[in-house]
Amino acid sequence: MSRLSVDCLNEIFEYLERDTLHSCLLVNRLWCESSVRFFWRDGWNYNTLNYCTLISCLPEESREILNINEIFIPAPTSKPPIFNYATFCKVLSINQAHHMIKNVIKNNNQQQHIYTKDLNNYTNIVMQELCKLFMQQITSLKKLVFWKSPTINFILCPGSKDCLKNLTELHCNSNISAEFFYELSLVCQNILSIDITIGQIVSDGLKDFISVQKNLKYLNIHYGRGKDLKDIIPSYVIFSQLQTLKIQYSCSRYESLIKFLEMNGRSLREFYMGDYAGDSDNSLNLAVVKFCPNIRKLSTGFKSNELKTLKLVFNCCQFLESINIWCGGEFFSEKEALEAILYYSNKNTCELVLYHLYNTRSKLLPEELESILSIWKNRVPIKPLSLVIVKYDANSLDTNDKNMKIIRKYIKLGVIKKFKVTGFDNGEKTAHYRKFRPIV
Fold first, then answer.
1. CB 299 within 8 A of CB 272
2. What is the extent of the structural domain holding 23?
3. Rounded distance, CA 76 to CA 91, Å?
4. Are strands 436-438 and 416-422 parallel, antiparallel or unpaired?
5. Which pLDDT does position 290 carry in this prediction?
6. CB of 391 within 8 A of CB of 423?
7. Tell me, what's the pLDDT at 429?
8. In degrees rounded to 5, what are phi and psi of residue 258?
9. Residue 360: which residues within 8 A CB-CB, separation 6 or more?
10. How confident is the prediction for the chain on average, in pLDDT?
């Protein structure tokens, strides 16, 4: 392994976990020099020791400012830093950095008894100097996260334009000041992915910031109650490259969302409407039929009396590969959902995700499941089915041993490609599974 070229090592380190990368740092000089940039690239993974190391990398001018303010943070080692670690950072969370710095100061033996007001003041001083370091040393930041208004306007730091000009992913809150969004919009106009949490306040600058994005492909909105899409996105904006739209909670009205789909639906490949809450609107599903012909993955609410609309979705969205269907209450039963995809889906549909309402009780009989899967087996052309069950405290088909015996049978026959049972992730209804119980 010691004879591997730097290019080979870089290919390997690209896929290693952080703990493994830490071990690679200790192998030899070549491995250390190659792996260090991968170990330090994700600021989300920085701990207090990492921030102590970064503070030790501050230039003399910044260290003098800390000394004047009687902020003494010892370096992790007596030796000077081997690398300028900030240059390796590609993912930066401003609020997480602020939290970590506060812990560093609070846990420092020389400053454990400082008052809360002083602690916040000291933290802001250190953050100011670290932001200068980040903006000057990070050559091309890829992902930026800030959930609260930054106490330090890092966009005004020297070097920020070069640091942020190639930013591709942004996670933020709607209550950030309009001035901050304005400054950011002057630098960042080619963001590919935006994740917005909508709070009580929607900054006037947010609309303008979103409207100048030229290459947006992924938009994820975590709604606050009573907010409308037109509060966030100007009605005239067209995102010609938008492929994924996710609304994590229900919005107050669907008119603006339908208008958005009318203008941007043709490019969409994934559309996710997160909160069923009894708020699902058939007009929204009909808008998908009319404006989203190229959709591949779909998650909206279909009530049991809206089978006709579901048929239209399958008929008009010929590229649809995966669909999420709610089960229980006013929505479909497991049997109705399985029969719908069996009899009405198009040739490309091969994944069904069943979201179960709280406290739902399964009524699917083993003989019904057997019948459905045996018919799927004879579909032409045959495409193995992926079946995913998402639930929290619900009784679904997997709780029946006979059903599970049938599932295993059809996995062996190649009719079922994968079968997963998972819970809701942090209260959000999402098809990105982190915890699951695979059946193999």
1. yes
2. 1-39
3. 23
4. antiparallel
5. 97
6. yes
7. 39
8. -65, -40
9. 327, 328, 329, 391, 394, 395, 396
10. 86
User: Distances in Å between the alpha carbon of 353 and those of 81, 243, 298, 334?
Assistant: 50, 20, 10, 11
Distance CA 185, CA 342 (A): 48
Contact predicate 364/394, CB 8 Å: no
CA-based angle 187:192:198, to the nearest 5? Answer: 85
Residue 41 identity: R
Is 10 inside any structural domain? yes
Q: What is the mean pLDDT of each run of 10 residues along the chain (440 residues)?
A: 68 76 80 82 90 93 93 82 90 92 81 69 93 93 85 86 94 90 92 91 89 94 75 87 87 81 96 65 91 95 92 96 92 94 94 89 93 93 92 88 96 94 59 35
Residue 355 in any domain: the answer is no
Q: Is residue 15 part of a domain?
A: yes
Token reading at 186: 């002057």
How is residue 200 written in tokens?
Answer: 């009580």
Residues ≥6 apart with Cβ < 8 Å to 264: 238, 239, 242, 245
| In contact, 109 and 135? CB cutoff 8 Å | no
Reduced 3-state DSSP string for the chain:
CCCCCHHHHHHHHCCCCHHHHHHHCCCCHHHHHHHHHHHCCEHHHCCHHHHHHHHHCCCHHHHHHHHHCCCCCCCCCCCCCCCCHHHHCCEEEHHHHHHHHHHHHHCCHHHCCCCHHHHHHHHHHHHHHHHHHHHHHCCCCCEEEECCCCCCCHHHCCCHHHHHCCCCEEEEECCCCHHHHHHHHHHCCCCCEEEEECCCCCCHHHHHHHHCCCCCCEEEEECCCCCCHHHCCCCCCCCCCCCEEEECCCCCCCHHHHHHHHHHHHHCCEEEECCCCCCCCHHHHHHHHHHCCCCCEEECCCEHHHHHHHHHHHHHCCCCCEEEEEECCCEECHHHHHHHHHHHCCCCCCEEEEEECCCCECCCCHHHHHHHHHHHHCCCCCCCEEEEEECCCCECHHHCHHHHHHHHHHHHCCCEEEEEEECCECCECCCCCCCEEECC
Domain assignment present for residue 29? The answer is yes
Report the C-alpha gap between 316 and 338 in whole angstroms: 19
Neighbours of 26 (CB within 10 A): 9
* Number of domains the chain is built from: 1
Looking at the DSSP assignment, which residues form a beta bridge with residue 419? 387
- Report how far residue 420's alpha carbon sits from residue 23's, in angstroms, rounded to the nearest whole number: 34
- CA–CA distance, 344 with 319 (Å, rounded to integer): 14
